[in-house]
Write a structure and sequence with these properties.
The protein is an alpha+beta fold and 879 residues long. It is built from 21 helices and 40 strands.
Length: 879
């Protein structure tokens, strides 16, 4: 009898389970066989208004009853997966642009998205769905780098819309993958579409930007991202013209009606707090009105709290629930396309293993990308490459042994960054003495920080500080671990202490004493990925919320030698990239004297100078000579570094200048007197090895400038002026220090047999080809560049405009024919109203290894340029 009851209950359970399974299948949004649009609509219709509103926030919570997992929309992958722990760190975006290599850009983006998926898969298995752990990435940054003073220009692909467009398409395709059903990750092209604010606040009043400039300069890259690459998301700029970018109905028309964009639109952080009342133009909307206005204009998502007011906006009839549903549907479509509502095994990207992260293949690719990003600007008397038989070399400068300038902004975490000093030491081995000195500060008022040594820290009778580790952010309860830490210099790459899982919230409090070695003005600082509090004696010097971006801050304080100062440092981890470093700078360090002593002993000097992300980046509270709020006020090298260069030059040693920066730097004196100059940007975790490869000839440099290097800040229009007049190589009427597209090689290239038609009819494509030969004795890469100019147009046209480029690899003596296709819009003019215009007249074409139009002193000695023209027929036809 018992056996019969058992069998009956088992059968009943099977029937119930089968019925439940069939019910799940019948839910349309879970049915993988149904069209995507139908599935999304079904899920939206099942949500309450309150649930819908929660899903339109950056940190969308789970809806358990519908099986909707929590999701955070904010992740970074500008040049590697950022802020999410271990990742391969590629050169900063401006450096990758300097490679002028579309296939390489695609390969780099593919590696980044592989790591992004692998990390997301790992986080999901651990139940982690927080910031920086998702699949929607805020990249690429494809604004035009119109002014070298802009601190965020390093995140872009330079000043040219064509170069930016081509690289953006390759990067987006590499990120999103080639699967027709599932996105590997979702890319976000930012910031659409006006130039980013030059001011220091969250908003500044934009001067009018002409339609000619908008269509000619600012829109092409976004158009390519949408129409060619199928970018899933577009982020709006902070800036506005007649009304804020988040609320312009014209954006909806441009993106969706003209370009047929079918993704979602996201507002940059805090912009919806600044929407003005269009009726008065002098009052701010309240949160409910702002949320309604943004949704009405087509903005689907934002990372501020304004979207929480959408429920009130619907209830007050400021917007309809149908319009809210439309925005929500676009957001959910992205999540469906990422495979979040399908059987995990059916999504191929879910099978990318965590071992992909920082694989040897990716590290080798990062090294290659760093090599290709380096631009050889000057090489008099064949100073480079350096002989490997040298017996001593001095490596001098504030960037020579600093990790942060290798990484740039928003990087991932590398377990070991190869600085230039280390790269040179690896290259020469024990056969040459390598002498090092920082030489100078970066700028007046900016200290050179290093980790506080254990010898000046104490707790009880032991060196270092006592650390109490807590499994919460409030430092409450009994610590899970108490120990003595000799140095506060932690990057917990894969596992924080005390077996606390990566990405869990935890906090540490270090206490003890600091006993200075000298008397005078010290700088005490912290570099951390999340929140910190730092106190000295009874004074709180630093208090940063855990939700803040990564930081490196310092403060000046007068300390006495031998006196013990109570110190307390609290660190609050709230994300997947825990790291914290206690730093300082001591007074009285004879930086210049030490550098000159090292240079005197050396056979060759390598000066590594330039900038750092601590000087140029997103807005930050820094005001020192030459820098303000993340921007530059002067593009010249800071005076302390300029003085260092001049003093080293007086020694008469063969000297190579290596620049690291996020954009163009003016260095006319050094350029006149030093025989060899490299621009290395922020070259990534293997940047030091890559630079050493170029210095010693193991790699033939092939980078080209993606921006114009000017002689002086005086050459530039006002920073707040948005007009393209006298900006970038296309409109600059002066003589640059180095022109856009410039770069030398250790070999030579010759051009011949330029072919193009005599005449092009209206709307004809034009075929152009040329033969390129490596006439030197080294294998090398040449960047073949095609420029177009229309000197007879009835409207303003660029002096010249890049409309084609190709990187070719040539053995000594090898010849290759390179072909380009010019589409009609590439040789059309742009009217003041923003329309394409084809007129009858001669179109001039230049093809070679550099930009045309400059004298011998600014034309690379390793290449040449050919010129031709064709007649464009037409009768003032608008395309």
């Amino acid at each position: 009898m018992n056996r019969k009851i058992t069998v009956f209950l088992v059968l009943l359970c099977l029937v119930a389970c089968h019925s439940s399974s069939r019910q799940a299948v019948r839910l349309p949004y879970l049915n993988m066989l149904l069209p995507l649009e139908e599935r999304v609509k079904d899920l939206v219709n099942r949500m309450t208004l309150e649930e819908k509103v929660t899903q339109m926030q950056y940190d969308a919570p789970a809806i358990d009853r519908l099986g909707v997992p929590a999701y955070h929309w904010w992740s970074e992958c500008l040049h590697g997966v950022g802020q999410a722990g271990m990742a391969t760190v590629f050169p900063q975006a401006i450096g990758m642009a300097a490679a002028w290599n579309q296939p390489l850009m695609y390969e780099v983006a593919t590696a980044i998205s592989d790591e992004a998926r692998a990390k997301h898969n790992h986080f999901v298995k651990e139940g982690k769905r927080g910031m920086y752990e998702g699949l929607t990435f805020s990249a690429p940054h494809i604004e035009i780098f119109r002014d070298p003073r802009w601190g965020r220009g390093q995140e872009t692909y330079g000043e040219d819309p064509f170069l930016t467009s081509r690289l953006a398409v390759s990067f987006i395709r590499g990120l999103q993958g080639e699967d027709k059903r599932y996105l590997k990750v979702a890319a976000t092209a930012k910031h659409f579409a006006l130039p980013h604010r030059p001011g220091t606040g969250q908003q500044t009043d934009a001067k009018q930007v002409s339609k000619q400039d908008i269509y000619e300069t600012y829109l092409p890259a976004f158009k390519a991202a949408v129409e060619e690459a199928g970018v899933q998301s577009v982020m709006l700029t902070h800036q506005h013209q007649e009304s804020p970018a988040n609320s312009q109905p014209s954006l909806e028309h441009m993106l969706r009606d003209t370009w047929h964009f079918n993704g979602y639109v996201v507002a940059d952080c805090t912009t919806m707090h600044h929407l003005p009342d269009q009726a008065t133009q002098d009052a701010r909307l309240d949160a409910t009105q702002a949320a309604a206005l943004a949704i009405s204009a087509g903005t689907d998502l934002n990372c501020s709290c304004v979207s929480a007011y959408l429920k009130e906006a619907v209830e007050q009839q400021l917007i309809t629930e149908d319009s809210l549903d439309e925005s929500l549907s676009r957001l959910l479509t992205a999540r469906f396309r990422l495979g979040m509502f399908d059987d995990p095994d059916s999504v191929g990207w879910n099978h990318i293993p965590y071992e992909t992260v920082r694989s040897k293949k990716h590290q080798q690719l990062a090294l290659q990308a760093s090599r290709e990003s380096i631009v050889l600007l000057k090489n008099e008397k064949n100073t480079l490459p350096l002989s490997k038989d040298i017996t001593s070399i001095a490596v001098i400068g504030p960037n020579a042994d600093a990790a942060q300038p290798m990484l740039g902004t928003l990087p991932g975490t590398s377990p070991h960054v190869v600085t230039l000093l280390e790269g040179i030491r690896q290259k020469v081995g024990s056969q040459a003495e390598v002498l090092y000195a920082p030489g100078s500060r970066y700028a007046e008022g900016v200290p050179t920080l290093s980790v506080v040594p254990a010898s000046v820290l104490s707790s009880g009778d032991q060196p270092g500080l006592q650390g109490a580790y807590f499994d919460n952010l409030s430092l409450e309860g009994t610590p899970v671990l108490t120990r003595q830490d000799s140095l506060i210099d932690f990057t917990w790459a894969t596992q924080p202490p005390a077996q606390l899982p990566v990405a869990d919230t935890f906090a540490v409090r270090w206490t003890g004493y600091l006993e200075p070695r000298t008397t005078g003005r010290h700088y005490i600082g912290v570099s951390a990925d999340h929140g910190v509090k730092l106190s000295l004696e009874d004074s709180l010097y630093m208090d940063v919320d855990p939700a803040q971006h990564p930081l490196e801050k310092s403060f000046p304080v007068n300390l006495e030698k031998g006196k013990r100062y109570r110190i307390s440092l609290e660190y609050y981890n709230a994300g997947p990239d825990p790291q914290v470093h206690l730093l300082w700078s001591e007074p009285g360090s004879p930086l210049l004297e030490q550098a000159l002593a090292a240079a005197r002993k050396a056979e060759v000097v390598v000066l590594c100078v330039g900038l750092t992300p601590q000087l140029e980046s997103e807005p930050m509270p820094l005001k020192v000579p030459g820098f303000a709020d993340g921007h530059r006020t002067d593009i010249a090298l800071p005076p302390p570094q300029e003085s260092l260069i001049r003093e080293v030059y007086k020694l008469g040693k063969p000297t190579v200048l290596v620049l690291m920066s996020g954009g163009a730097v003016a260095f006319p004196w050094a350029n006149s007197y030093l025989p060899a100059v490299l621009e290395a940007w922020y070259p990534g975790e293997f940047g030091g090895a890559a630079i050493a490869d170029v210095l010693f000839g193991d790699y033939n440099p092939s980078g080209r400038l993606p921006v114009t290097f000017y002689q002086s800040t005086r050459d530039l229009p006002a920073f707040e002026d948005y007009s393209m007049e006298n900006r970038t190589y296309k409109f600059f009427k002066g003589t640059p220090l180095y022109p856009f597209g410039y770069g030398l090689s250790y070999t030579r290239f010759a051009y011949q047999n330029l072919q193009l038609p005599d005449t092009a009819r209206i709307s004809d494509t034009v075929q152009v080809s040329v033969e390129v030969t490596n006439t030197g004795d080294r294998t090398g890469d040449e960047v073949v560049q095609l420029y177009v100019s229309d000197r007879e147009a009835s409207v303003r046209t660029p002096l010249r405009a890049l409309q084609g480029f190709r990187k070719v690899h040539l053995q000594p003596g090898e010849t290759q024919r390179v072909r380009f296709t010019l589409l009609p819009h590439q040789y059309a003019a742009i009217t003041e109203g923003g329309n394409f215009l084809l007129e009858p007249g001669m179109i001039h074409v230049s093809v070679g290894g550099a930009q045309p139009g400059f004298g011998p002193e600014l034309t690379p000695e390793t290449t040449e340029i050919l010129h031709g023209s064709f007649f464009s027929e037409g009768e003032n036809v608008h395309l």
